[in-house]
């Protein structure tokens, strides 16, 4: 329990779906596929706290539960128009000539303003369905801290994405399990 402040929980290649509606349907489950990734990380930032008792010589008398802070990270392969439009709506416009996604900074968002307008339900579906899927009930996607878009021959162009997870309407934050066992509600 007292290891680092962050630990990797799941790592598997798969696809990310925005706004899925029904796991009974076939892929993409009523949502929009927004990209493929070779690696997905679900990270917990909570740390349990030891309560030490002076009367017991500093021995622990209790352990306080960790907080519920989670984030999901992945590198979306390629420049996916759907991902740019869904995840960065406040910076998205449609290119006049190509009709493709155009990311513009600063866009209409204001630093320090609420990002909840960009929150959405996300589903991570592993390529091998024997691996766990991840349902994120209310996630705010953004560029990873220090994100770099490498325009060079040696690196693949893609979107380095981090999603901060919040409680959804049903009070759930995240659910991890086989796709047949997880729920969108």
Give the overall pLDDT as a whole number.
Answer: 84
- CA radius of gyration is 19 Å
Structural class: mainly beta
Count of strand segments: 13
Protein model, in words:
The protein is mainly β and 185 residues long. It has one domain. The chain is built from one helix and 13 strands, in the order βββββββαββββββ. Strands 1, 2, 3, 4, 7, 10, 11, 12 and 13 form a nine-stranded antiparallel sheet that branches. A two-stranded antiparallel sheet has the order 5-6. A hairpin with a 5-residue loop joins β5 and β6. It starts with 6 loop residues before the first strand and ends in an 8-residue tail after the last strand.
List keywords for this structure.
single chain, 185 residues, mainly beta, nine-stranded antiparallel β-sheet, two-stranded antiparallel sheet, 1 helix, 13 strands, disordered N terminus
Q: What layout of secondary structure does this protein have?
A:
Layout: E1 7-8, E2 14-18, E3 32-37, E4 40-44, E5 49-53, E6 59-64, E7 70-77, H1 81-87, E8 92-94, E9 101-103, E10 120-126, E11 133-143, E12 158-165, E13 174-177
Antiparallel strand pairs: 1-4, 2-3, 2-10, 4-7, 5-6, 7-12, 8-9, 10-11, 11-12, 11-13
């Amino acid at each position: 329990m007292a290891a680092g402040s962050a630990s990797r929980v799941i790592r598997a290649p798969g696809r990310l779906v925005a706004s899925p509606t029904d796991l009974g349907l076939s892929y993409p489950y009523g949502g929009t596929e927004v990209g493929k990734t070779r690696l997905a990380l679900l990270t917990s930032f909570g740390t349990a706290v030891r309560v030490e008792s002076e009367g017991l010589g500093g021995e622990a008398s209790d352990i306080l539960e960790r907080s519920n802070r989670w984030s999901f990270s992945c590198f979306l392969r390629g420049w996916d128009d759907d991902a740019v439009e869904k995840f960065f709506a406040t910076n998205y416009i449609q290119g006049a000539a190509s009709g493709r996604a155009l990311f513009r900074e600063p866009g209409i968002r204001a630093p320090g303003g609420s990002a909840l307008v960009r929150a959405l339900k996300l589903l991570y579906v592993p390529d091998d369905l024997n691996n766990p899927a991840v349902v994120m009930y209310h996630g705010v996607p953004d560029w990873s801290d220090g994100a770099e878009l490498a325009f060079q021959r040696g690196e693949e162009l893609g979107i380095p994405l981090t999603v901060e997870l919040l409680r959804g309407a049903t009070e759930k934050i995240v659910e991890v399990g086989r796709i047949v066992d997880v729920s969108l509600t």
